[in-house]
Design goal:
Blueprint: E1 24-31, H1 34-39, H2 42-57, E2 60-69, H3 78-89, E3 95-98, H4 101-104, H5 109-120, E4 124-127, H6 137-170, E5 182-184, E6 195-197, H7 199-214, H8 218-227, H9 234-241, E7 249-250, E8 260-261, H10 270-283, E9 303-305, E10 312-317, E11 322-327, E12 335-337, H11 338-350, H12 360-374, H13 376-404, H14 410-433, H15 438-453, H16 455-461, H17 464-474, E13 479-482, E14 487-490, E15 492-494, H18 495-498, H19 500-508, H20 523-529, E16 546-548
Parallel strand pairs: 1-2, 1-3, 3-4, 9-13
Antiparallel strand pairs: 5-6, 7-8, 10-11, 11-12, 13-14, 15-16
Helix pairs in contact: 7-8, 7-10, 8-9, 11-16, 12-15, 13-14, 16-17
Length: 554
C-alpha cells in the first residue's frame, strides 16, 4: 500500500508556535513626552517608516495605534494595551509593526515576555529599522537584546538625572517638594530655587519649642497646633521633629551618610533641634520600627507584597518551632511558611543559573562583543584620552630632565609642571565620568557568570550576609510575593543575570549530539544584527545597573 494519505490522521501536530498565516498588520507609534508629540515630527516619521516596511513585505495595514505620547518605562499604557487587546481579539492580524523595538517597550525582560506571549498566539512583533528573524533562536535572542539594551538606555538616563540631583544637593539646593512649613517661590522649570518659611512654618517653630521646653506629648502638641489653625497628626509631628531640614541641613537617600548645609533658611537653630531629638530619643523612638537580622529569615524586608508593596517581616511560632513571613500591613492576613518561601526563592534563583560551565566563555564574549559594538565611539575616545595622558606624562619627564641639567629654572619647572599636572587631572576626571569601563565590565561579567553556576546552592548554604549579598546582586530592588497566586514576581533583575535564561533556552533547543554551544549564538550573528553605537548605556555593573522586569514564577 504505497498511498499513505489515509494515515495522515495519525500524524503528530507541531509542538512549535503556530503563526497566523495572513498578511494583515497593525502599526504602533509613540513618543515619550507631550513636548515631543507637540513639537517634532517623530510620530509622522515612525508611521512613514512602518508603512514603507509593510509595503515592502507585502503586509496590509488594518489599524493604527498610538500616535501620541506614552512613556515605555511601564507597559501599562492606554494605547499600548488597546493595541494588545485588538490583536488578540482579531484573529486575522498576524503582525505588529513598530519603528524600533524601544518604541514597543523599554522595560527589558517584560517587553521580551510580551513579545513571546504574542508569538505563542501566532502574532509577530516586527521592527521597521531592526530586522531580525524571530522564528530562529538566534533571531529571538537578538530581539531580546534590543529590549534589554533599551532598558540600559533608560538606566543611563536615570543615572544622569540622579547625578544631577546629587550635585545640586551637595551644593545645598533641595530637590523635590519642600517640607510642610516652607514654600518654594522659585518652583518651576528653569527657575532659581527660593525657599521661604510660610505661616505653617511659624507654627511649627512652636511645636519644637513646646517639645524642648515643656516635653509635651505629640498628642498634646497636635492639639495645641490645631487650636492655632494647623492640623497635624501626632505621628506626623514626630516625623517633622526628626527632620534636620528644619535646622537648615539636607539629608537624602541619594547621599547616604552625608549631611549638607542647605541654602534654605532654618526654621529652628541646630542646638534647639538637637535638644528636641535628645528628648524624643529618651522617650522612645516614636514612629521608628527596628527589624533585627535573623539567620532563619534572610528574606525579611527584602520581599514586598504584590498586592500593596508593603515589606514582609518574619516571626517565630515558638510552640511549633517554625518560622513564618508576614505582610507587615496592618490588618493583612498574608502569612506564609518560611520553608516554603525559601524553596520558591531557590527555584527563582535557578532561572538565572548557567547549567553548563562551558557556556561561560562564549557567553562572556557575546556580551562583551555586544557592548564593544554599542560603545565603539566611547572606547575610541577613552583610548585617545589615555594616549593624551601618556603624551603629557612624557612632557613632564622631559621637563624634569631639562630641570636636572639646569636648562630651565625652578620657577619655570614649577609653572609648566603645574600646568601639565592640571591637564592630566582633567583627563582623569573626564575618564571617570565616561559610561564605558571595559575593565569593570570584564570583572563584573566574570564574577556574575561564576556565581551563576551555583547560584541557588550558594544562597541555600551561605550565611546571612552572603544570602543578602546574592539577593541584592540578582534582584537589586527586592522581589514581590503574589500571595493570591502563591508565587514570586521579579521587580528588576541585574542585566548580566537577565540574559542567562535566553542563553540556556537556546542551548536546550539544540539537537541531540550537537555541540552545546549553538552556532546561532555566534558573534557573527550579533555583529550582523546590532546597530551602530546609538544609545549610551552605563557599564558600571558594580552599581545596580539592572533590567526592569515583571516576570512571574506563577
Amino acid at each position: 500500500m504505497n498511498d499513505l494519505s489515509i494515515f495522515k490522521q495519525f500524524a503528530k501536530t507541531s509542538t512549535h508556535d503556530q503563526m497566523r498565516s495572513n498578511t494583515n498588520a497593525v502599526i504602533y507609534t509613540r513618543v515619550s513626552t507631550k513636548e515631543q508629540a507637540d513639537n517634532n515630527a517623530s510620530l509622522d516619521t515612525q508611521r512613514k517608516y512602518c508603512e514603507l516596511f509593510a509595503k515592502r513585505k507585502g503586509y496590509t495595514i488594518v489599524e493604527y495605534f498610538g500616535g501620541t505620547y506614552e512613556s515605555a518605562r511601564s507597559d501599562e499604557r492606554v494605547e499600548f494595551q488597546r493595541m494588545l487587546s485588538y490583536v488578540k481579539r482579531h484573529k486575522n492580524v498576524a503582525y505588529i509593526i513598530v519603528y524600533s523595538y524601544d518604541r514597543f517597550s523599554r522595560t527589558g525582560a517584560n517587553g521580551a515576555s510580551i513579545s513571546e506571549q504574542l508569538k505563542k498566539q501566532g502574532i509577530k512583533t516586527l521592527s521597521a529599522t531592526q530586522e531580525v528573524d524571530t522564528s530562529t533562536s538566534a533571531g529571538a535572542f537578538q530581539q531580546n537584546l534590543y529590549y534589554i539594551f533599551s532598558q540600559f538606555d533608560n538606566e543611563l538616563r536615570r543615572d544622569k538625572i540622579v547625578t544631577g540631583i546629587k550635585e545640586k544637593l551637595r551644593r545645598g539646593y533641595w530637590m523635590g517638594n519642600v517640607p510642610i512649613g516652607y514654600t518654594n517661590l522659585g518652583a518651576g522649570k528653569h527657575k532659581e530655587q527660593n525657599i521661604v518659611i510660610n505661616e505653617d512654618g511659624e507654627l511649627l517653630k512652636i511645636a519644637f519649642e513646646l517639645k524642648a521646653n515643656l516635653d509635651l506629648s505629640m498628642a498634646e502638641i497636635s492639639r495645641q497646633l490645631k487650636e492655632k489653625g494647623l492640623e497635624l497628626t501626632p505621628k506626623r509631628i514626630g516625623v517633622i521633629l526628626r527632620n534636620p531640614f528644619y535646622c537648615g541641613l539636607i539629608v537624602s537617600s541619594h547621599l547616604p551618610n552625608e549631611v549638607i548645609e542647605g541654602k534654605h533658611p532654618p526654621l529652628v537653630s541646630k542646638s534647639l533641634f538637637l535638644r528636641v531629638n535628645k528628648i524624643v530619643n529618651r522617650n522612645g523612638n516614636y514612629g521608628v520600627s527596628h527589624h533585627g537580622d535573623d539567620e532563619n529569615l534572610p528574606l525579611k524586608q527584602f520581599i514586598k507584597a504584590a498586592s500593596c508593596g508593603t515589606n514582609y517581616t518574619g516571626y517565630l511560632v515558638k510552640k511549633k518551632g517554625l518560622y513564618y513571613y508576614k505582610n507587615n500591613r496592618r490588618g493583612s492576613k498574608e502569612n506564609r511558611s518560611a520553608k516554603i518561601m525559601h524553596q520558591k526563592f531557590i527555584a527563582e534563583l535557578q532561572k538565572y543559573q548557567l547549567a553548563d560551565k562551558r557556556l561561560i566563555v562564549p557567553y562572556r564574549e557575546i556580551i562583551k562583543n555586544a557592548f564593544v559594538q554599542e560603545f565603539q565611539y566611547e572606547i575610541e575616545q577613552a583610548e585617545k584620552g589615555q594616549n593624551k595622558i601618556l603624551e603629557l606624562q612624557q612632557k613632564i619627564d622631559r621637563l624634569e630632565e631639562r630641570y636636572v641639567f639646569e636648562e630651565i629654572s625652578r620657577e619655570q619647572f614649577d609653572k609648566f609642571k603645574s600646568r601639565l599636572d592640571s591637564q592630566i587631572e582633567e583627563l582623569h576626571i573626564a575618564a571617570a565620568k565616561k559610561p564605558v569601563n571595559l575593565s569593570n565590565l570584564n570583572k563584573s561579567i566574570n564574577i556574575a557568570l561564576h556565581m551563576s553556576l551555583n547560584l541557588s546552592k550558594t544562597w541555600e548554604l551561605g550565611n546571612l550576609p552572603l544570602k543578602k549579598t546574592i539577593q541584592h546582586i540578582v534582584f537589586p530592588e527586592g522581589i514581590l510575593f503574589d500571595y493570591e497566586n502563591d508565587c514570586y514576581r521579579t521587580l528588576r533583575v541585574n542585566s548580566l543575570f537577565m540574559l542567562i535564561p535566553s542563553i540556556s533556552k537556546n542551548t536546550s533547543e539544540n539537537k541531540k549530539g550537537k555541540d552545546p554551544i549553538s552556532n546561532d549564538l555566534s558573534l557573527s550573528v550579533l555583529k550582523a544584527g546590532l546597530e551602530p553605537a546609538r544609545p549610551k548605556w552605563s557599564l558600571d555593573f558594580k552599581s545596580n545597573v539592572s533590567t526592569n522586569s515583571t516576570t512571574s514564577a506563577c
